[in-house]
Specification:
The chain folds into 2 domains: about 220 residues, HUPs (Rossmann fold, 3-Layer(aba) Sandwich), CATH 3.40.50; about 80 residues, Orthogonal Bundle (Tyrosyl-Transfer RNA Synthetase). Helix 3 crosses helix 12, helix 9 runs antiparallel to helix 12 and helix 10 crosses helix 12. It is globular. With about 325 residues, the chain is mainly alpha-helical. Helix 8 links the parallel strand 4 and strand 5. It contains 13 helices and 5 strands. Helix content is about 55%, strand content about 5%. Bound molecules: tryptophan. Its EC number is 6.1.1.2. It catalyses: tRNA(Trp) + L-tryptophan + ATP = L-tryptophyl-tRNA(Trp) + AMP + diphosphate + H(+).
C-alpha cells in the first residue's frame, strides 16, 4: 500500500459546538478520513492560554471527544487523541521556539485581538500559541490541515517555521497546506459577525428543533428586503448562505428564485432551511446522547489514539534530535 499522506487538525475543548464550527472545519475533517491518515487532536494545552476552570477541563475534553465522534469522526479510520497525552507536542514546540523570531508572533492577528480583549491576561502561552500549533502539525509530518479561514495566518506561520527548520538543519518536515471547507464562513444570527459563542449569535449542534426555530425566525436576512412583496437579494442574505451549507440544489435554487421574484417570504425560506438543517443535526444529537452514556468506550478510544499518535511522534522526535545534534544515550 502507498503510504497515505497525513492530516492533522486541532480542536479546542471550549464548550458547545455551533453550526459555524460544523460547516467551517468539521465537515472537511470528516470527509478527509477515507483518503488520508487523519490525526485529530483535542488541544487542551491551547485552551489553557485563556482563563479556564481546571474543574471543568476534564468534562470539556470528554464533551469535545463526544461531539466530534457524534458528528462523524470515526475512530476506526482516524486517530482521535488529547494533545497533553502525547508529550512530544510540547517537546517539539520548545525546539521550534528557539528558531521562531518573536517579531513573527507579535504580528499574529489572534494574538493582537486577545491582547486587546484581555489586557490583564497576556501570558507567554498566548504569544506562543502558533508555535505549539505548528508543533501539533509537524510532529506527525502532516501535509494537510483542515481549518476554518480564521486559522490561515497560523498556518502561514507554521510554513515559515518549517522552512526555517529545514534550511537550518536539513530537510525534515513537509510544508503543510491548509484545506478550507466548502462553505467557509457562516455568519451569526445577526447576519453581520462571524458565528461565535462570545457574541451570542449561534445555533448550537445540540439544540432542539423548537429552539433552532426560535432563533432562525428572528435571524437577520437581506436588510434591503423590508416587506414580503419586495424582491430580495439572496447573495446578501445570511440565511441563503446557510441554505448553501445545509440544503440540496433543488431547495437552494427554489429559494433563490422565489426570493428574487418576491414569491416567498423570508419566513417560508427559513422554514425550508430549518427542515434541512435539523435533518442533518438530529442523527448527530442521537449519537451524542448514546456516546455520553458510555464514558468507558470514549476513554478507550482516546487511550488508543494516544498510543497510535505516540508511535509517530516518537519517530519524528528521534529524527529531530539527530538533526539538531542532541543524541540520546540509549
Ligand atoms: N488554533 C486552532 C483553533 O483555534 C486549534 C488548533 C490547535 C489547531 N492546533 C492545531 C488547528 C493544529 C489545526 C492544526 O481552532
Amino acid at each position: 500500500m502507498i503510504a497515505q499522506k497525513r492530516v492533522f487538525s486541532g480542536i479546542q475543548p471550549s464548550g458547545r459546538l455551533h453550526v459555524g464550527n460544523y460547516v467551517g472545519a468539521m465537515r472537511k475533517m470528516i470527509s478527509l478520513q477515507d483518503e488520508y491518515y487523519c490525526i485529530y487532536g483535542i488541544v487542551d494545552y491551547h485552551a489553557m492560554t485563556v482563563r479556564f476552570d481546571p474543574k471543568e477541563m476534564e468534562e470539556s475534553i470528554f464533551d469535545c471527544a463526544v461531539d466530534y465522534m457524534a458528528a462523524g469522526i470515526d475512530p476506526t479510520k482516524s486517530v482521535l487523541m488529547v494533545q497533553s497525552t502525547v508529550s512530544q507536542h510540547t517537546e517539539l514546540a520548545w525546539i521550534l521556539n528557539t528558531i521562531t523570531p518573536i517579531s513573527w508572533l507579535l504580528r499574529v492577528p489572534t494574538f493582537k485581538e486577545k491582547r486587546q480583549q484581555n489586557p490583564d491576561y497576556v501570558n507567554m502561552g498566548l504569544l506562543d500559541y502558533p508555535v505549539l500549533m505548528a508543533s501539533d502539525i509537524i510532529v506527525y509530518k502532516a501535509e494537510v490541515v483542515p481549518v476554518g479561514d480564521d486559522q490561515l495566518p497560523h498556518l502561514e506561520l507554521t510554513r515559515e517555521i518549517v522552512r526555517r527548520f529545514n534550511s537550518l538543519f536539513g530537510y525534515t518536515f513537509p510544508e503543510p497546506k491548509a484545506m478550507l471547507g466548502e462553505v467557509t464562513r457562516i455568519l451569526g444570527l445577526d447576519g453581520n459577525f462571524k458565528m461565535s459563542k462570545s457574541l451570542d449569535n449561534c445555533i448550537y449542534l445540540d439544540e432542539s428543533k423548537d429552539e433552532i426555530w426560535k432563533k432562525l425566525s428572528t435571524a437577520v436576512t437581506d436588510v434591503r428586503r423590508k416587506r414580503k412583496t419586495d424582491p430580495g437579494n439572496p447573495e446578501d442574505c445570511n440565511i441563503f448562505t446557510m441554505h448553501k451549507a445545509f440544503s440540496k440544489k433543488g431547495d437552494i435554487d427554489y429559494c433563490a428564485h422565489e426570493c428574487c421574484v418576491a414569491g416567498i417570504g423570508c419566513l417560508d425560506c427559513k422554514k425550508i432551511l430549518l427542515e434541512n438543517m435539523y435533518k442533518e443535526l438530529e442523527p448527530i444529537q442521537k449519537k451524542r446522547h448514546e456516546l455520553s452514556c458510555n464514558r468507558e468506550h470514549v476513554y478507550d478510544i482516546l487511550k488508543q489514539g494516544q498510543k497510535r499518535a505516540e508511535e509517530i511522534a516518537v519517530e519524528t522526535m528521534s529524527d529531530v534530535h539527530a538533526k539538531i545534534g542532541v543524541k540520546s544515550f540509549h
